[in-house]
Amino acid sequence: MDKTDLAPLIQAFDRLAAGGFHMGADWQAVHEICQANEGEKPFDWGHALCHRIEGDDWNADYWYRRAGKRRAAGTVAKEWSAMRAELSAQL
Questions:
Q1: What distance in Å separates the CA atoms of residue 90 and residue 46, rounded to the nearest whole number?
Q2: Tens-place pLDDT, residues 12-57
Q3: Which helix (H) or strand (E) holds 3?
Q4: Full domain range(s) for residue 81
Q5: Residues 53 and 28 sit within 8 Å (Cβ to Cβ)
Q6: In total, how many domains does the chain have?
């Protein structure tokens, strides 16, 4: 994975966050980016957060396991903040 591949994921999640993490076009854009990069841990983590936002905890937990992560306590916004910091450090 080219580290620059993370930039579109971060940008898409930022748009989703700005909209309050609501289902819709921004959520779909993030989900598609994650699906296109399935098997790469940062994207699997993003995929987990997508399904957490969707309210599908079973599916979210599957993707957290694939990413080697655990569902964070607290809000989706709090988890995105921590995820963003970690992903940005990889750029």
A1: 15
A2: 999 999 999 999 999 999 999 999 999 999 999 999 999 999 999 9
A3: none
A4: 3-89
A5: no
A6: 1
